[in-house]
TrEMBL record:
UniProt keyword Glycoprotein present: no
Species this chain originates from: Perkinsus olseni (Perkinsus atlanticus)
Top EC class, one word: ligase
Name of protein: nicotinate phosphoribosyltransferase
Listed Basic and acidic residues bias regions: 503-514, 523-548
Region named Disordered: 1-21, 494-548
Keywords, sorted A to Z: ATP-binding, Glycosyltransferase, Ligase, Nucleotide-binding, Phosphoprotein, Pyridine nucleotide biosynthesis, Transferase
Catalysed reaction, written as an equation: 5-phospho-alpha-D-ribose 1-diphosphate + nicotinate + ATP + H2O = nicotinate beta-D-ribonucleotide + ADP + phosphate + diphosphate
GO molecular function: ATP binding; glycosyltransferase activity; nicotinate phosphoribosyltransferase activity; protein kinase activity
Annotated Pfam families: NAPRTase_C, NAPRTase_N, Pkinase
Entry similarity comment: Belongs to the NAPRTase family.
Length: 1103
């Protein structure tokens, strides 16, 4: 406001307020300049009016009265609520006239109209007359005072400045950063710090889905200074880790205001919706559990370990800089104070040179330095410290250079806060200085810290905090040491799940603890604690873990929780191909040396080299001349789901702390989409040295799969081969049943044996799970325990459960009449065949009757519980006769599980024939053909001996010797590199048979005129394919004397593509030997016997 006071003879200049946010609207800038021009117009009008009045007064001869002021009639804005610029002149005897101008929404238009000579706007009113009441003088004139001339010059200068600024605004260069161009939009202010403010920003999406990020806004004096603040952005660009805030973007933003140009440096980062750990601890400490805290701490340690592996020291680790995502994962942020540790020499202190010498000084040095530091801190504000002092380690506070142990100390402070609910700045003093002031201070500080801890924190966690907060950096544990601690490795498995509770929260706050939510203040929305489960959810998860051992084996107890009722659901390259049938088969199912080699390959830059591996065996199992191929389907399923998860990576990093963290991030990108796999079809015969599988693809991926592939092929081939040999020994007519689940090596061994015994030629299994999963026919009867559970015929006095269908066969036989019919039949039967009734066990008969009532159409009795021929067989025949008489149902047969199987089977058959003849008039002749099943520790030798002697066994139940492959527990498959980048590779050995066969190979089976296989020929893949009816020269691979010409009638390739470009091809999900379009095990029997007895040939190789 410009105010002219005539009495004082001075003009005062007063600035009132300012336009709201003038830099954000060009309209306000124009209004400023126009206001200045309007002020000039009004001033000029005022001066002209005074000069006119003065000249008129002089013409009239009237004297000039200095107490009277005559002015023109300028206009005054009526909107008095806005800031104003006014000019007034007054005397003691006259009221001053004021020219006032207001800034408002329509002021620019008003001034334009006024300057252009238009009528005054409606909101402008005429200024009141300056004529003093009671004064008869019309006016007076006087010359301008010096102050008035100065005021006029000042206003003129302001108007020129306004015009110049308006021109400057019109001609300025508009900021073209990503914020001004609309790429980002500010949402709200999240908080502020020492260097700037943090906002949430969104990236608009045309599809209505907006991406939310966090943006740090740092003010800088100019564009050049922004380079000094870009170090944080540069670090974020370079650092890639799951538990480090992800970098998105950075740019410079310029704002033009009335007061000058402002420059800001923006860093756009990942947005963590659950805030920082400080907020969680402050608002929800009572809900936290030790398991949750340790899970967060483990992730934070992994982030710091990655930083240290990149020779980066954070230097400002605190709870405010540890953020939590929506899923409860930890993100370490705020790298504005980080620095590079350029010292490469390994040292527990984290560095070398000057730093290493400093860290190796005795504790007395730190005590003296701490005293100096404490004095300097209290007496001077000029000392500069990097970081937050209450989180700084003693060596940092004592002015020594910061090393990696300093970050470890800060981690201990954060862990203490999470376990106590008390923040470091709330303590009475700085513990870093207290601990080194005198020898007794550390113990006092530890006692003080432990007193704040929640009573639910375990002793192991308390001990860990004490070790981390060691004032001596030489004995302070490293990050790798911390991650190896059991309390950290097993965080959520071994830690307490009891909520902390805290005196920091009132009773009402504790009452609100339900379902993992709590309001930090009355009226505020509840905040969800990431990773915290309700008691019901925790109980259900614990029960699920107990029911499924696969979760424990795969580490679910530590980091993940099942939620879909199934063990897990994996990512698959081919969505139409299933997952492995075993939960155990995954990327980490490998030997450590595979991971070690993969790391060495990666360090050597070999990750993109193309390799070819052959899977083969050197000697056929069981002393035979053939092997049945099996396990290919499971290999393809494994390849389909091959992928490392973050769970796997976290574990591997804890076991290989020296490895470069970038290698583990590389592992996360691996899958089998670039592999090509050729294999022999399941059920086909293969011979030594022939590739059963050929795996081609990136060297590291192929190498990592070695252990799993060999495991998935070795045992299946062994079991299928054993089953095939049993089938050959038993003959085509015998029924073979696999009964070995109870004797197998674990559940996976039992399921695998059941499956591949069926591929090898068995007819069924007793394993219900195998039948359910693979569609294998299931078979079985009762055990001895069922017979022993009945003592006498009195056990039949109790009624059986009523059948829901009264017309069914089961309902017919579930009567006392049927029971009496069986008892009566035994007396008639024993008399007819010459047996004594008193030799027959009544309890056994009662058991058979009850079993027949349960399964009337499938009655097969185990007859060797007491005495096979004198008791078991007559009791079986009695129930069979009762079934026939009462319901016209034919019994199935008996099972022998002990004794001389050949003799007992022959003797039982004689009794069956006698009974058939005795009751032939009733149509009981079918009993002579009752099936006899034998299951007494049968192996291949027993089958061959039974083949050479008379017996009447129809079915064999084989268990232990089949599922465990007792004759040869392992096959000895190998996985060898045969080609790298198109160049053959060969393993040399003093043992000639262990030498590899180099290059990529193809295998063909040559058939003769009778459609029987003659031999297999192995040659280079690029060589011409053998043609039917064309003479082919062959020679043995290792025996120069074995060579011949063959003219095949048919040529069949053995290696077919089963996986290519991330898709399974030419493979069914559950193969069955007898259903495939090729010769099965039975039709090849003669050829196999000829191979074993006469030819004794291995694979041949084209010359």
């Amino acid at each position: 406001m410009l105010h002219q006071d005539g009495e004082a003879g001075q003009t005062s200049v007063t600035a009132l307020g300012g336009p709201p946010q003038p830099a954000t609207s060009l309209r306000w800038h124009m209004a400023l300049g126009l206001a200045a021009l309007a002020a000039v117009q009004s001033t000029v009008a005022l001066v002209q009016a005074e000069q006119t009045a003065s000249s008129n007064s002089r013409r009239d001869g009237s004297p000039v009265d200095d107490d009277v002021l005559v002015t023109a009639q300028p206009y005054r804005c009526a909107a008095a609520s806005m800031p104003s610029v006014s000019m007034s002149s007054s005397r003691a005897s006259a009221a001053p006239r004021t020219v006032a101008f207001q800034w408002g929404p329509d002021f620019a238009d008003s001034v334009c109209n006024s300057l252009c000579g238009g009528l005054p706007p409606a909101h402008l009113e005429e200024a009141p007359s300056s004529k003093a009441e009671g004064d008869g003088t019309e006016g007076s004139t006087r010359p301008l005072h010096a102050a008035e001339i100065a005021a006029l010059a000042l206003v003129t200068g302001m108007s020129l400045m306004g015009c110049a600024y308006s021109v400057k605004l019109l001609c300025r260069k508009k900021c073209k950063c990503r914020l001004c161009t609309g790429h980002y939009q500010l949402v709200k202010r999240l908080g502020s710090g020492g260097y700037g403010e943090v906002y949430s920003v969104v990236v608009p999406s045309g599809e209505g889905r907006e991406q939310l990020f966090a943006a740090k806004k740092i003010p800088v004096s100019n564009v050049t200074e922004a380079d000094s603040f870009s170090s944080e952005a540069k670090e974020l660009v370079r650092l890639h880790h799951r538990h480090i805030v992800s970098y998105v973007d950075d740019f410079i933003h310029i704002e033009h205001t009335l007061w000058g140009v402002k420059v800001y440096f923006f860093i756009v980062m990942e947005y963590c919706s659950n805030g920082d750990v400080k907020q969680q601890v402050e608002a929800n400490f009572a809900q936290l559990t030790e398991a949750t805290v340790l899970a967060w701490f483990q992730q934070l340690c992994q982030a710091v370990q990655y930083l240290h592996s990149q020779n980066v020291i954070h230097r400002d680790i605190k709870s405010q800089n540890v953020f939590l995502t929506e899923n409860g994962d930890v993100r370490l942020g705020d790298f504005g104070l980080c620095k590079h540790d350029k010292i490469r020499k390994r040292d527990r202190g984290g560095g070398g040179g000057k730093l290493r010498k400093t860290l190796r000084k005795p504790l007395a040095f730190y005590r003296r330095a701490a005293a100096v530091a404490a004095t300097a801190t209290s007496s001077s504000s000029d000392s500069v410290q990097v970081g937050t002092d209450c989180y700084m380690s003693p060596e940092m506070l004592c002015s020594a250079e910061c090393g990696k142990p300093g970050d470890v100390w800060s981690l201990g402070c954060v862990l203490f806060e999470m376990c106590s609910g008390k923040f470091m700045w709330e303590l009475d003093s700085n513990i870093g200085i207290d601990m080194v002031m005198d020898k007794s201070s550390p113990s006092k500080v530890y006692s003080m810290l432990m007193s704040y801890m929640s009573p639910h924190v375990s002793p192991a966690t308390r001990s860990l905090i004490k070790k981390i907060l060691d004032p001596d950096p030489r004995t302070r544990p490293t990050i790798a040491d911390i991650l190896r601690k059991k309390v950290v490795k097993r965080s959520s498995r071994s830690a307490s799940s009891v909520r902390f509770g805290s005196s920091r929260h009132d009773e009402r706050g504790l009452e609100r603890l339900e379902n993992g939510t709590m309001s930090s203040a009355e009226g505020k929305p509840e905040l969800k604690i990431p990773g915290l489960k309700s008691d019901k959810e925790a109980g259900e998860e614990e029960n699920h873990r107990e029911r499924s051992s696969s979760y424990i084996a795969r580490g679910y107890a530590a980091c993940e929780s099942p939620c879909d009722g199934h063990a897990f659901s994996r990512l698959r390259c081919d969505s139409e191909m299933g997952e492995p049938h075993s939960d155990i088969i995954e990327a980490t199912f490998t030997d450590l040396y595979q991971i070690s080699m993969a790391y060495a390959y990666w360090k050597s830059g070999k990750e993109k080299e193309h390799a070819v591996f052959d899977v083969y065996f050197r000697k056929c199992p069981f002393g035979g001349e053939f092997t049945v191929c099996a396990g290919i389907d499971e290999v393809v399923r494994y390849v389909n789901t091959f992928r490392f998860t973050q769970l796997h990576i976290d574990y591997l990093q804890s076991q290989m702390p020296e490895a470069d963290p970038e290698f583990f991030q590389y592992l996360l990108t691996l899958d089998a989409s670039n592999l090509t796999i050729h294999a022999v079809r399941e059920g086909d015969f293969v011979f030594p040295r022939e590739p059963v599988l050929r795996v081609a693809g990136p060297l590291i991926v192929c190498q990592l799969m070695e252990t799993a592939i060999l495991n998935l092929v070795n045992f299946p081939c062994l079991v299928a081969t054993q089953a095939a040999r049993f089938r050959i020994a038993a003959g085509d007519d015998a029924q073979l049943l696999e009964f070995g689940a109870r004797r197998a090596q674990g559940p996976d061994g039992a399921l695998t044996a059941s499956r591949y015994a069926y591929v090898g030629g068995f007819d069924g299994t007793s394993n219900v799970k195998a039948g359910h999963v693979f569609g294998i026919p299931i078979a079985g009867t009762h055990a001895h325990a069922f017979v022993n559970s009945f003592h006498s015929l009195e056990d039949l006095d109790e009624d059986t459960r009523i059948s829901p269908d009264p017309e069914s066969l089961t309902a017919k036989v579930n009567t006392h009449e049927f029971e009496q019919a069986c008892i009566s039949a035994r007396e008639e039967l024993c008399e007819a065949i010459g047996f004594q009734v008193n030799c027959c066990n009544d309890g056994e008969l009662a058991a058979f009757i009850r079993y027949a009532q349960a399964f009337p159409t499938n009655f097969l009795a185990l007859v060797d519980t007491y005495e096979t021929i004198l008791s078991g067989v007559p009791n079986y025949l009695s129930v069979a006769l009762g079934l026939w008489r009462f319901a016209q149902i034919q019994a199935v047969g008996i099972r022998l599980d002990s004794g001389d199987l050949a003799y007992l089977s022959m003797r039982a058959r004689e009794v069956f024939s006698t009974a058939a003849d005795a009751f032939a008039n009733e149509g009981f002749q079918f009993i002579a053909g009752s099936r006899i099943v034998a299951s007494n520790d049968i192996n291949e030798a027993v089958l061959l001996s039974l083949h050479d002697q008379p017996h009447s066994i129809d079915s064999f139940g084989i268990g232990t010797n089949l599922v465990t492959c007792q004759a040869q527990p392992a096959l000895g498959m190998v996985y060898k590199l045969v080609e790298l980048n198109g160049q053959p590779r060969m393993k040399l050995s003093q043992d000639f048979e262990k030498q590899g066969v180099p290059s990529r190979k193809a295998v063909y089976r040559l058939y003769g005129q009778d459609d029987m296989a003659i031999l297999d020929i192995m040659q280079g893949e690029e060589e011409p394919v053998p043609q039917p009816n064309t003479k082919v020269f062959c020679r043995h691979l290792f025996d120069e004397q074995k060579r011949c010409y063959v003219t095949p009638r048919k040529v069949e390739p053995l290696l077919i593509c089963v996986w290519k470009d991330g898709k399974a091809v030419h493979l069914t999900s559950s193969p069955r030997t007898k259903e495939n379009d090729r010769p099965d095990i039975h039709s090849a029997k003669a050829a196999l016997q000829r191979v074993e007895e006469d030819l004794q040939k291995g694979p041949s190789q084209a010359d």
